[in-house]
Amino acid sequence: MNDNRRAANAPWTRTRLRTAPGAAVALAVLVLVTAFLAAAFPRAVDAYETKGLRHDIAAANPSRSVVEVARPQPGLELPQEQRNSEVRAPQLSRVGSALLKDLPAPLRANVPQSAQGVRTTKPVVASEPWLPKPDGSPARIHYAAQLDLKRHATLRSGAWPRTRAPVTSGTREVEGTVTEETAADLKVRTGAVLALPLTSGETLSVRITGIVTPRDPGGSYWSADPLLRAPSLLPDPQSRYPTFYWSGTVLLAEDAGPALLNTPTEPALYWRIAPDPTKLTGPDGPRLAAELASLESGPGLLDVRETAGDTALVRSGLGDLVAANARMREAISSVITVAALGIGSVAAVVLLMTGALIGGRRRGELALLRARGGSLTGIGGRLLAETAVTVLPAAALGLLLAVLAVGEGRWWPGALAAAGVAALVGVALPLHTTLRHIRPTLHGGREDMVSARPSRRRTVVELTLLVLAVGAVTALLRRGTAAGGGTDALVSGAPVLVALIAALVLVRLYPLPLRLAARPVARLRGAIGFLSLARAGRSSAGGALPLLALLLALATAAFGGSVVAGIGDARDDAAMTTVGADARISGLSERTALPSPLAGTVRDLDGVRDVAPVRVEHGVELPAPGTDASGASQDGSGDATGPGPDSAALLGVDPAAYARLARATGLPEFPAARLKAAGPSAPRPEGAAQDRGRVLPAIASPSVAARLGPEPVALDTLNGEFKVQVVGVAARTHAVSTTGFLIVNIASLDAREPTELLLRGTPDPGELRAAVAASGKEYAVQLRSEERERYVDTPMQAGAERIYLAAVAAGAGYALLAVALSLLQTAPERRTLLARLRTMGLTTGQGRRLLAFEAMPQTLLAAVGGLFTGWATIALLSPGVDLLPLSLAGVAGSSTNPVPLRADLWSLGLPAAGVVALAAGVAGVQAWWASRRGSITELRAGDPR
Predict the structure, then answer these.
(1) How far is it, in rounded angstroms, from Cα 147 to Cα 358?
(2) For residue 629, what pLDDT band results from cuts at 50, 70 and 90?
């Protein structure tokens, strides 16, 4: 029996695939692409999270990323020989090996860069007269006996330090070495001797036998303690005045550690474990953070003490790095999930539409089988087998391509996603098709008609979905979208909820305006307009499923495009805020004035459109509110406190040039005319006597304007003493980054040489720097384009941005596919209509216009609905979306202010316009194809259409 059934099933499946290979191939391609996208998404997320975690650890300063196990010197109660033995190289190596072996997963060690040894925790004040003493403060030297020095350094002069006899706490002379940078800065030469005082009052002589160069200066071996590699000038905390002293490290022979035990430097044993991030993955982050916390103050610390000693402590900044990476990952994932859920919903709807189209094309065939006694189980089994033969290989191939395309990531999330796609198509298509044939039917009704009264069941289902979606959106509005704590399903599903509401409402409302428009059109000459509106108002192509797919796709594409555009705009704004214009020329110090001919020189360069000279003086003290023009308190209280800043930046500008610059850089219109004062306040000729009674009109920032008030106030600046009166307010200026500033006419100042030149245009960087260098070496050039390049993507940012670009492309592609499927579903009826109308005298051109006009109402409805849905989604989510982690995070000196999400007009309009263009193109192709087929072919005798 089973063999007969298999024999019967095999011909059916093979015959169906041979009969309709085009439909099978199209379904397989759609499943392949969807399975690829579904499987690639979780792998791509894993990949950029993995690369981001590895990058953050590898790029961090070794002093932050290294895990240091340290313990004080052996106790004084121990025998001296035991104390000496514990700080010698063999014992240090044994403990280090045990610590590396017992490291908890997923923490792994970079063994070649790990270090161990003995070091002083208190510096020694050096008394040698040949050591440099800046500000009269003597140098302070650290000493360290670090193992494996020869493997990590190259000897430049002299000899390696060594121990000629076993070193003990009683040794009075040891050998040491310093790096080239330490030797250069501290004036150390081979043969020099440093005196290290002992607790007994004697001294330990440290003879410098060689100068070495680190082989990997940036590695953890040398940079976990930066003083090992190079000395540093440090401020003296005990001095009343700003004085500095040199601090450096002398490297002793690796077995010379016992000599430090009798010094007052409180020596400590240490094992610095450099982390190896190459094997870490993104999902390892939480586990790694937990293990680090355990090592620092948990069960892991007890295990460390069993190996290194009861007084051992673990210190590391690696936990902070992992925590910062987790915060960025959460901030990015909350935005990424919106795109993932939106595109996933669109793909699911499009797959269901495809299944409905395939099932609709086979309605007559299956109705005949059902009428001849075929069971639902038998029909469903054959459809399931037929679909599985097509879908399962396509889904498997999509998963394989995803694994090959995204080589790093867990395999099971992608496999589950691809299996979900295969299950959706493999089950939904046979189930939907079979359930439509529960009762045997002869001929169905007209397929180009929509029932005037939808069934009660459909109405109840739609109302239920509408109420649930509206309730979810209402709850989201009341609660807000800024709820912390990772990904929120309600926030991520906002595009789906808004699109569902719009689709359910629009699909019920759109026939009303079409019917109203058909009445006046019916009175016009010609039948094309009336026929197109009448058919558009009752066509089954306007169902909720195609409209939902379009709205979802357009909303997701608009959201993703707005995210990508917002990232670019934030970086452009940050670069403009930093530089102030397309290029900035300034002195190396704030008070360096630029030579007068320099402005004319750079103005003549190719690509320079305008030059705005600016004189900047920072830290100008502002009088307190309530003081008169002379600076005296009007109420006699002498209170010098009030709102606003105590100091501000004074900017002297050329009003006309600065107004052009502000206009070109996107700032509000600058009121240049208010700075062109007349009378005593007018600009004075150069060399004229100083007049303290002058009142200069000034444009102030809001905080400075609130502090100074509307009356003239006196200022004491490097440009002389004068009074200013606030005549206007500017919210911001690109000339300075501070929020407190005063802008006056540079011609009214005593010193008129600019300290900065702000350039507009695209000059050649080499020519610009050459022109500035010709005027002196004390001037610097900043370019906005170079500053913009500083905001390079970290692996996590780049991965998230690529996912959003893919989301925009996939959303647009599924939207176009939804339009094509919607029109293909009614293609047979359209061809039959044209054939009938051609027998009545309809020309080919009229037929094409009829199909185009018929498709436009639904398409325009979807486009307008997509615009609204995209805008509503962005408006709903923008309060809780901060693009800072995606745009500026990780760049030193960048702004930490939130970067809000704003609707991007191009992202809203382009996908909608593409949908309209595609619908018109598909309708035109259908009309052209139908015109090539004869009416006899379409109108066959007995055809139920």
Answers:
(1) 74
(2) very low
